[in-house]
Sequence to fold (161 residues):
Amino acid sequence: MADEIFLGQDFDLGFIADEEGRVFAGPYSRVDLQAKLREEVAPRAMDLSVVNGKANLIQSLILRLKTERGELAGLGHPNYGSRHHELIGEPNTEGNRNLIKLYVLECLKQETRLEAIQKIDVRPGQGRENRDKVDIYITVQMKGFPDPLSLVIPFSFEGPL
Fold:
């Protein structure tokens, strides 16, 4: 399918569970290249695994949001990433939640494979033990696909989860 080709292919970094793009680990999970057994060659051998299409786009969005803006400046990508990490150490207030929303919107607008960003909602954590945490609910429209894509990204004002 041409739309799947448009979404691309990349090395599998270990937090996509399947080709539908269901995430199996959070955004602060350890990232590592994945290996898989190549059954189609003789003798069977291990090779680097890849993700394609929708799963690749989801992995790309997670990586973009995990990366602090400016972190890749030395590689020629000074605007890649998000600024919401700058809010670590700040209080979980409505104003700071609105800044997260702004920074995530800014970040996602860099992704050319998205047709529209339909919704970003930042909700505070429930209960006293989660007072420094929020969940970022994101709904985007991928180019060439009728169904929207929804993600929930956790964030802590205290630092990595």
In short: Residues 2-156 form a domain with the Nuclear Transport Factor 2; Chain: A, fold (CATH 3.10.450.40).
